[in-house]
């Protein structure tokens, strides 16, 4: 068998719901006399041994998945799968299976099709219900076969369920179970296992109500202990009655609630531990069992929520100092599980649940618990706090602000005293009150997390981020939660959060550079970065007043790259705001210095630190942050000028020089601003001669990305625009005659008089024309020799008007005597080459 179409892998499903590879071979279908029917045969490609021999049973449900997979179940909880190398081979075998079962090969699941005719189905639906055999020991095998044969058909499952309900059959079966167990009738017990398991798969709530009743549930669990595939029965009832203990941390007086808790625990145990792992086709048949457990939990939460006496006692014992540690641990764990159950509630019910907890004082109770030394109790309290924050952060914020207000009132009362000794004592008391604020307790637990991986600290940092996130803060007509809470947070809590950072960055390098400390500092810096992005003046004032950025940049000297990158992200986020307050703070304190040092210390290594620093400088260049550009070049250019593998720093230098040029030539800058502020759309028509003046500015002097286009007729009438242009025209006409004399002079032309000059503008008070005189031609420009269509006509010569103050203008205005100029140009063509309409500006 070398046909790759029939090449398959054979898989079986183990108890852990994982597919085990049984080998690779080639599949075929043939009649097997021993099995008396068409069968699937798979022989190993290595030695030809038989990997699989499976009869195609007419009642077996086969399923085709993903075009190359066929899955089915055989015997008791035994699932098989064939994975084909090619789709064509899968289709061939699928057709064989469908042919044996009389199915249409276009279906993907043979079980879904009922091969009864419409008339037969109508007759069966109109026929009386299913008749069950008498519930006797001798008929148990018959009952088991009836249940197994009814499961594939939805109609038969429905009839079987009704028969079991109406005749009270389950209770009779459980009586037989007790008889079989007393007689040690192993065969009967095995049949009862199959029957009870099949009843579970009927997925019927009414049957579950009977099976999970107080008098029946332990017998049902007993039936499921005798699995025929196991050599010895399980001991589930022994575990539930002797090992598992129901512990009441607060006595429950309602008997119905007690019974519901017992039932839910046992049904959950049946689902998780007693029932065998469902096969591929049985998973959906247990959906009602999941729903039964779900609604039980909802009912338990509702009943506890309505019992005010119970909740009052719970929170009273939680906060009572006399409660011993073991008892408090049990109470906290109960409250944690109570909150976990609440996650199954619908939104409106969950609202009522958390409102009830809030009214009962859950947050003050958590504040007391978090102040205790027991690590396990604090961990459970943290989980409860996370449920509250994730559900309703505004509720938590409102509580901590009210708590702070109460503390402020106490401090004001104490500080009003005139006695200096009392005043000193009151100051100490105010400090203590601030330290026991709920949020400060959370921050302290985050800082003091003993876990080497800081798992608890990471969880608490996420909760803090949720609390300080303005996106989930409310704004009403009477008050703004954002303003009030952030003012509180920066006044009472931010100093606690930043304390480890400030303590560890007093020198040029971090005082402690071990992994756990660095991981904690990274969490703090990440939260500060979040604050920079989402808060405005609060974080700005704090950073500038406390010099936080300088302290954070000390971390760039850490041996741990992840911490150095956190510090760079913090500065990058600040620069990205393009806020001049921040920029002046950075320049005044020379805060680029540690960044440049980190860049140079990194050397030639191409890593994240190198890329992050270069990207920061590139952002300054691309966004043209003028103040930072000048600061970087003036203070750090010598250290960076040799970096040539990227053009970032040279680009910064060019930006700086362009800024200086604009500062030294204010009139040029004002003309550029006129051009920048009056941009018009350039149409396809030929430019008129009087509009060509707009293109005589050197391209290199324009800022990146600027497009200067000629004005429309309407804008030419604008007085603000025409005023400087008109003056410019007048100056041009005054010089026009002098230019003609220079171009048509009879004697030899000196370098200063030659039309073949290149204009050079200096930043000195006196501007001069550069020497030697050379023409600057732009290839492809209207006046260059390479431009098509120029013919014998040369472009008009350029003229420069200079004063002691620098450049006045650079124009190419043809006047009404253009034809005369053309003749003069023709006469002088042999003496000098034509000039481009754009002269080269250089500085």
TrEMBL record:
It comes from the Eukaryota. Residues 142-658 form the Serine/threonine-protein phosphatase 4 regulatory subunit 3-like central domain. Residues 694-706, 813-828 have a biased composition (Acidic residues). It holds the Pfam family PP4R3. Residues 728-743 have a biased composition (Basic and acidic residues). Residues 757-797 have a biased composition (Low complexity). Residues 694-843 are annotated as: Disordered. Residues 5-101 form the PP4R3 EVH1-like domain. Belongs to the SMEK family. Regulatory subunit of serine/threonine-protein phosphatase 4. This is Serine/threonine-protein phosphatase 4 regulatory subunit 3. It comes from Carassius auratus.
């Amino acid at each position: 068998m070398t046909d790759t179409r029939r090449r398959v892998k054979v898989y079986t499903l183990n108890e852990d719901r994982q597919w085990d590879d049984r080998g690779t071979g080639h599949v075929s279908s043939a009649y097997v006399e021993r099995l008396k029917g068409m069968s699937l045969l798979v022989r190993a490609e290595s030695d030809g041994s038989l990997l699989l021999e499976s009869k195609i049973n007419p009642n077996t449900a086969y399923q085709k998945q993903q075009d190359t997979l066929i899955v089915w179940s055989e015997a008791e909880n035994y699932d098989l799968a064939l994975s084909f190398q090619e789709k064509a081979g899968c289709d061939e075998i699928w057709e064989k299976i469908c042919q044996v079962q009389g199915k249409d090969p276009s279906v993907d699941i043979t079980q879904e099709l009922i091969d009864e005719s419409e008339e037969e189905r109508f007759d069966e639906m109109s026929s009386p219900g299913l008749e069950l055999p008498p519930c006797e020991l001798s008929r148990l095998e018959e009952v088991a076969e009836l249940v197994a044969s009814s499961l594939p058909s939805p109609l038969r499952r429905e009839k079987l369920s009704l028969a079991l309900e109406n005749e009270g059959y389950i209770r009779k079966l459980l009586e037989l179970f007790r008889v079989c167990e007393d007689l040690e009738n192993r065969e009967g017990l095995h049949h009862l296992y199959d029957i009870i398991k099949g009843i579970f798969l009927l997925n019927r709530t009414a049957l579950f109500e009977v099976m999970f009743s107080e008098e029946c549930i332990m017998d049902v669990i007993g039936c499921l202990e005798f699995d025929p595939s196991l050599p010895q029965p399980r001991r589930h009832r022994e575990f539930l009655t002797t090992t598992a203990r129901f512990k009441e941390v607060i006595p429950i007086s309602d008997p119905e609630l007690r019974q519901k808790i017992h039932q839910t625990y046992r049904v959950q145990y049946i689902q998780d531990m007693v029932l065998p792992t469902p096969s591929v086709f049985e998973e959906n048949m247990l959906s009602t069992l999941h729903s039964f457990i779900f609604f039980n939990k909802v009912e338990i939460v509702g009943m506890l929520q309505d019992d005010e006496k119970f909740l009052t006692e719970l929170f009273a014992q939680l906060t009572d100092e006399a409660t011993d540690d073991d008892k408090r641990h049990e109470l906290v764990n109960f409250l944690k599980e109570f909150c976990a159950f609440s996650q199954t509630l619908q939104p409106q019910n969950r609202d009522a649940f958390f409102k009830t907890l809030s009214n009962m004082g859950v947050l003050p109770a958590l504040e007391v618990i978090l102040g205790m030394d027991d690590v396990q109790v604090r961990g459970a309290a943290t989980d409860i706090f996370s449920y509250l924050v994730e559900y309703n952060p505004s509720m938590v914020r409102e509580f901590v602000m009210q708590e702070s207000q109460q503390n402020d009132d106490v401090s004001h009362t104490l500080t009003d005293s005139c006695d200096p000794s009392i005043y000193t004592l009151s100051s100490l008391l105010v400090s203590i009150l601030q330290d026991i604020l709920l949020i400060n307790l959370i921050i302290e637990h985050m800082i003091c997390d003993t876990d080497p991986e800081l798992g608890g600290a990471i969880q608490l940092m996420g909760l803090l981020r949720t609390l300080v996130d303005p996106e989930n803060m409310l704004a009403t007509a009477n008050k703004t939660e954002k303003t009030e809470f952030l003012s509180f947070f920066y006044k009472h809590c931010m100093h606690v959060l930043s304390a480890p950072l400030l303590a560890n960055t007093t020198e040029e390098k971090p005082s402690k550079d071990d992994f756990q400390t660095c991981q904690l500092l990274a969490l703090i810096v990440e939260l500060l970065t979040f604050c920079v992005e989402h808060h405005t003046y609060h974080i700005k004032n704090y950073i500038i007043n406390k010099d936080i950025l300088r302290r954070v940049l000390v971390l760039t000297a850490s041996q741990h790259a992840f911490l150095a990158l956190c510090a760079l992200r913090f500065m990058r986020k600040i620069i990205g705001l393009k806020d001049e307050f921040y920029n002046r703070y950075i320049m005044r304190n020379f805060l680029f210095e540690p960044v440049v040092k980190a860049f140079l210390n990194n050397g030639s290594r191409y890593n994240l630190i190198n890329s992050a620093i270069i990207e920061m400088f590139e952002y300054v260049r691309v966004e043209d942050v003028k103040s930072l550009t000048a600061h970087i070049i003036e203070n750090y250019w010598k250290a960076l000028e040799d970096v040539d593998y990227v053009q970032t720093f040279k680009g910064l230098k060019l930006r700086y020089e362009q800024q200086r040029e604009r500062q030294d030539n204010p009139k040029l800058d004002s003309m550029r601003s006129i051009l920048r502020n009056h941009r018009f759309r350039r149409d396809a028509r030929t430019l008129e001669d009087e509009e060509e003046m707009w293109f005589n500015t050197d391209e290199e002097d324009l800022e990146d990305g600027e497009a200067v286009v000629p004005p429309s007729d309407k804008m030419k009438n604008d007085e603000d625009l025409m005023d400087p242009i008109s003056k410019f025209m007048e100056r041009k006409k005054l010089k026009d005659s002098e230019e003609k004399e220079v171009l048509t002079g009879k004697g030899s032309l000196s370098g200063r008089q030659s039309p073949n000059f290149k204009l050079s503008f200096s930043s000195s008070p006196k501007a001069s024309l550069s020497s030697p005189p050379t023409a600057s031609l732009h290839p492809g420009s209207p006046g260059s020799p390479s431009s098509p269509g120029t013919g014998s006509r040369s472009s008009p010569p350029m003229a420069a008007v200079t004063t002691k103050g620098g450049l006045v203008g650079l124009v190419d205005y043809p006047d009404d005597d253009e034809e005369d100029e053309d003749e003069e140009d023709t006469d002088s063509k042999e003496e000098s080459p034509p000039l481009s309409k754009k002269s080269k500006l250089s500085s």
